[in-house]
């Protein structure tokens, strides 16, 4: 009886862990630099932050930049080396911060692109209106 009860408890705990892990957001660190832009540039500016995508495909996160006066920042579709359309516009948060607006959510197609490493974040400036610094979102 003890072995059967222990087995049932182990199975129940495994199920709880499996389902609770699926509900946790996946957070990806991102580093932005001019060399990652398309076309690459020699900007000395940089950025870093994290983007989280929950099981329901809701998106949150923040990046902070240095050495740059950003005009706009976005999450785009596009594999490394390729540019793509804007998916989510980021909101300016202070002098050097950008946040994902509340309520942002990926579609199934956008989520699949995210999982495949086909999304990036970039910051646009007056000197580089197409983007001065960029970082690929690479989930594990």
UniProtKB/TrEMBL annotation:
Q: Which InterPro entries match?
A: CHRD
Q: SMART domains per the record? A: CHRD
Q: Which residues form the signal peptide?
A: 1-25
| Record-annotated CHRD domain positions | 24-140
Q: Which residues form a coiled coil?
A: none
Q: Name one Pfam family in it.
A: CHRD
List UniProt keywords, sorted A-Z. Answer: Signal
Protein's name according to its UniProt entry = CHRD domain-containing protein
Organism this protein belongs to = Herbaspirillum hiltneri N3
């Amino acid at each position: 009886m003890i072995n059967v009860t222990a087995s049932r408890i182990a199975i129940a705990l495994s199920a709880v862990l499996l389902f609770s892990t699926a509900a946790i957001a996946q957070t990806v660190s991102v580093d932005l630099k001019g060399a990652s832009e398309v076309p690459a540039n020699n900007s000395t500016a940089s950025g870093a932050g994290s983007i989280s995508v929950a099981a329901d495909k809701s998106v949150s996160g923040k990046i902070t930049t240095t050495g740059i006066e950003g005009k706009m920042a976005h999450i785009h579709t596009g594999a490394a080396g390729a540019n793509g359309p804007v998916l989510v516009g980021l909101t300016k948060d202070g002098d050097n911060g950008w946040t994902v607006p509340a309520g942002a959510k990926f579609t199934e197609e956008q989520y699949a692109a995210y999982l495949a490493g086909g999304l990036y974040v970039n910051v646009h400036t007056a000197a580089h209106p197409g983007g001065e610094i960029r970082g690929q979102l690479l989930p594990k």
